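P.,

For your records, the input lines for the assembly:
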Amino acid sequence: MAAMLQRLWNSGPVRAVRAFAAHPLVQRSFVVLTLAVFAYAAWVGLTQAPPDREMGDVQRIMYAHVPMVQMMLLAGTITFVCSVLYLFRASWKTDALAEASAELALVFGAIGTTLGSIWGRPTWGVYWAWDPRLTTVAILLVALAGYLALRRFVDDPERRAVWAAVTGIVIAVDVPIIYFSVKWWKSLHQVQSSPRTVDPQMVHALRWNITAFFLVFIVFLVVRYRIALAARVREVTVPDAAPSRTTQAVAS
Amino acid sequence: MNALRIVLAAVGEGRIQGGWEYVKAAYAICWTGLSLYAVSLWVRSRRSEAPK
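Structure tokens returned:
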């Protein structure tokens, strides 16, 4: 093992890190670590953190809701970056990563919004209100569903990638609006829950849960990216689906 | 005085009493949703690895 690591390191640090991360044992260990951190974070949030003075135990929903929505915003940002990169330098890798992150943004956003809605019932008295934060999130989720539908409806991979990149950039405009909506409009939804805005006794649970959901996000993103890239490679290697730029894009 | 003690007790224990049913529902939806998505990724991953 040591000799293998030494050999890898001699071939260059970046290549060594890549090869190390691609090793099945490392990947399995990462998944096990993710599950362990997730279980510990849930235990801390549900049993160790104190109840909120006004919201009581209902506040514990925040330990899942906040990280889920944060991952949605992170995924939306990745989609934006990959879409811009694709338009500047066509690559199936950035196209596949944009597709993967958009799907994750929809999954994390839909679940996170549902959790927020459940939290809203005992605290606001309603499951849903057309508050600026909730409205902008709803717009993002509908737009992401449209983005993924667009990817399914276009057969030509090259045209699909360009259209998706443009759509991804347009959709991502909503991400900063969602983030700043609670500051700009100061409406029903409270300001962002972060270690600076919550009680110090709750910071420990919040940090562990953000870490846990981030690890889950990384695992999902890597697996989904591989699926998207494999599909793209399969599409463009069939003889009648290889337009001019496709060969270049596969190569990069 | 008695009324004040009741109010303060309510503040100390959390003004929303109970609420565990909402917490359980939220965490059940979260864990089920993520588990189902993990299964869907696993199935799609196996399918993409299979030779055509």
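Two observations worth noting. Chain B has a mean pLDDT of 83. The first helix of chain B runs from residue 2 to 13.

Regards
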